[in-house]
């Protein structure tokens, strides 16, 4: 081994020790960090996909109270699972989690697989999620590489390139895999994530608070925010929609929502090319649902943003002629919708009406 390599290994060991000491003292107290139950950690990692930590916390606690074990989740009806997920979005995650729980019960006697290959065989679990579960729940030295980890390691090594560059991702992943073996693999995984989420921020890194800044090449450059370079921003697509509340007394008509493949329910709605077309759209929706009277509205207009869309939704209403609708239609009060699987935009549109 060359002197340079020995020095590099010593630096890596010292950096690991410093980061783990910092994490022990400064980590956020999150509910999924109070357990090593692989099922609970699995649930948390699925919920955290494309969703902010503060949003996930109450959903995680309610979900675990409703389905405390993998067996309880496997035995549940899909409707109950989707209802518990209601408002968190990306409902395919809930369906995959439910399918995965049934697979674990059927093929693994209810024990969550410990190997990376076994975890990746479950629906909805990719390389990152498998590594996170394996390291945190089972102590497997696996590299869980998300956007935070890419940023942290790229800065440590002074790697340039756009953060969405596949070559940079491959280089950082290889480095993360080399760093993974060592003491406390689960804490190491979470410490990297925590550093990226709370200190090594994308725009304004708090280098003066960083426990490993002495080993950071980006810090020594004087412009750590340039490592890595920002990815091209995806502007959410603007979409104007009309939602029609077909009322029967205090109840409204709900249909399977095609935006989620029918996993959730919502009042009839459709996109319009421009706001002046809203009345025609509301009339079309009324007639499509057996109502000839002209709709009234808009009662309110709401904005709802996701990663990919910026929605403006006009809410209209019309009295139903009858409550006889076939197929999967159902009727519920605005309060009752809160107990059904519904997207956040639907809940926002119906709030208080």
């Amino acid at each position: 081994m060359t002197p340079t390599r020995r020095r590099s290994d010593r630096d890596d060991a010292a950096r690991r020790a410093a980061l783990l000491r910092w994490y022990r003292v400064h980590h956020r107290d999150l509910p999924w960090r109070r357990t090593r139950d692989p099922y609970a950690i699995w649930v948390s990692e699925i919920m955290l996909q494309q969703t902010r930590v503060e949003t996930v916390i109450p959903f995680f606690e309610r979900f675990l109270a409703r389905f405390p074990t993998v067996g309880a989740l496997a035995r549940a009806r899909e409707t109950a699972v989707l209802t518990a997920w209601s408002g968190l979005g990306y409902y395919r995650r809930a369906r995959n989690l439910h399918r995965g729980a049934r697979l674990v019960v059927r093929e693994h006697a209810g024990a969550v697989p410990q190997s990376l290959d076994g975890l990746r065989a479950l629906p909805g679990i990719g390389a990152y999620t498998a590594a996170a579960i394996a390291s945190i729940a089972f102590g497997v030295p696996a590299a869980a590489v998300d956007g935070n980890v890419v940023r942290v390691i790229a800065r440590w090594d002074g790697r340039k390139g756009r953060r969405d560059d596949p070559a940079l991702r491959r280089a950082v992943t290889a480095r993360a895999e080399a760093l993974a073996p060592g003491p406390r693999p689960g804490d190491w995984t979470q410490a990297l994530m925590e550093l990226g989420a709370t200190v090594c921020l994308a725009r304004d890194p708090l280098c003066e608070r960083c426990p490993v800044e002495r080993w950071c090449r980006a810090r020594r450059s004087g412009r750590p925010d340039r490592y890595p370079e920002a990815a091209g921003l995806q502007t959410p697509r603007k979409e104007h929609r009309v939602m029609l509340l077909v009322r029967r007394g205090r109840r409204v008509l709900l249909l399977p929502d095609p935006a989620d493949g029918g996993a959730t329910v919502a009042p009839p709605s459709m996109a319009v090319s421009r706001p002046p077309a809203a009345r025609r759209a509301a009339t079309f929706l009324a007639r499509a649902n057996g109502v000839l009277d002209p709709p009234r509205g808009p009662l309110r207009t709401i904005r709802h943003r996701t990663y990919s869309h910026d929605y403006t939704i006009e809410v209209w209403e019309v009295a139903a002629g009858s409550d006889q609708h076939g197929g999967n239609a159902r009727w519920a009060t605005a309060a009752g919708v809160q107990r059904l699987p519904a997207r956040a935009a639907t809940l926002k549109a119906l709030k208080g009406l």
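The chain has two domains: 3-226, 237-350. The mean pLDDT is 91.
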